[in-house]
User: Fold this.
Amino acid sequence: MKSRFRLWRTRYEKNGRLWKNEELPVEEARSYLAAIDGSGAAHVRRSLSDSQTEPGTSRGAFRVFFDELKLGSDPLSGGAPQLVGMWRIGPGRHFGMIWNRKRYFCGTEVRIGTDFDNAFWFNEKFERADARTLSRLKDAKEH
Assistant:
């Protein structure tokens, strides 16, 4: 059975006091940013266009996103990044994030004693990381 990715954006329109849903186009042949949203979107878009990162790479976009959070350009954005990945098989998966030498999952700090093996963990360079040691995995590609 062939499946198809679908992506929806939900927005609240305060003037009309209603929620609006919009389906976004999804390309399945490559990795890319399907949407940049939120109060910090303009800052991220500007940094992406100014950056020397390879266009269309998740890694480059992620680094710009991380940098903007650290800079604090948008007063309404902050906290640990929350990311989800989609694959061709199975449901989307939350990523664990190592941010400011602490572990976060779905935006919540995670303490030692947690089972870290049920998620992929990434550091601030978007390198696969070990949640126990906070270091890049030995076999992970260095960025």
User: Anything to note?
Assistant: Residues 80-143 form one domain.
